[in-house]
Amino acid sequence: MKKLRRIVSGVAAVVATAALTGCGLQAATAYIPSFSPGSISPSEETEGVPLTIVTKNFTEQLLLGKISVIAATAAGYSVTDLSNVPGSQPARQLMLSGQADVGWEYTGTAWLTYLGNEEAFPDQQKQWREVRDAELANGLTWLDPAPLNNTYAFATPRALSEELGVTKLSEIGDLPVEERTFCVEAEFNSRADGFSPMLQAYDLPRDSAEGVPSDNIRVMDIGAIYAATADGACAFGEVFTTDGRIPALDLLVLEDDRGFFPAYNGAPVVNTETLEAHPELAELFGEFVPLLTDETMQELNAQVDVEGREPADVALEWMDEQGFVTAD
Q: Quick one: DSSP state of residue 193?
């Protein structure tokens, strides 16, 4: 079986750069280490078919993009790698304009930000179905979502969880007031669907001596919250559920047992015309998307954010471990 190598051709890279320059963007780094096919291999219907894959420019999106590029390349597509586009809206426009064929998006982001709804759904399947149905009118088809749900949450050091006997958000109300301390970022602190309504949903009156006094709340950058929580600056820190610092700092994500937070499942989104021409894409993504759980993404994200590894190397190693491809 022929060996596949890093794959964005010079011509494709020029085209990609030109397209992005027109949008005021920059092309992504297209690095991917060499590999050979594994359980995913080329076929007559996919060999040489052009396919452009886009993602946004944060760690999880880069990983999802590189995994997708590796899978599509192994399947025989001629892939243009547009991962690392700066910002949600530019990536979205590349999909809507047809300049990109495949992207990765989150159900809650699409429902609230792109489609303009004011209330989302904590039920993950319902949220995905609502988004899928609405997006068909935009020429986009949402494939089945991954288990990963990158939503808001609160975490606490595992040792403190055991000491306090708290594993669910509803149990915070059973603690003495002095133990109800929170670290939150400014945006979440002020969002209409953020911290204050969350406290209300869990019967914790804000700025009240009987609930959560204002002195119990610290506002800081999201990046600082993880370390502050681990160091005991607050008992409960705002986190994103697939962040790699959660296992690295031995934090425990509290169960949202009243279903306050919307679902933010990641899912591959395909230009509908592309999918109609190449329906085998759904089967390809169905090979690996079900394996992308919260725990898997935490581990992969940590290898990038904590250990400093390249997303493409981490993505290929994971694909090799699953048998989808063989790293050279």
A: T
> Which tokens hold the place of 182?
């929170």
89-109 pLDDT, tens digit per residue, is 899 999 999 999 999 999 999
Tokens of 284: 């390809």
Q: Are 215 and 126 in contact (CB under 8 A)?
A: no
CA of residue 33 relative to chain centroid, distance? 23
Neighbours of 283 (CB within 10 A): 10
Q: Strand, coil or helix: what is 55?
A: strand
Q: In this predicted model, what pLDDT tens digit does every residue of 104-157 receive, in sequence order?
A: 999 999 998 899 998 888 899 999 999 999 999 999 999 999 999 999 999 999
Q: Which of 287, 282, 298, 293 is nearest to 242 (CA)?
A: 298
How far apart, in whole angstroms, are the C-alpha atoms of residue 23 and residue 8?
A: 20
Report the distance separating Cα 196 and Cα 76, nearest Å: 50
DSSP state letter for 112: I
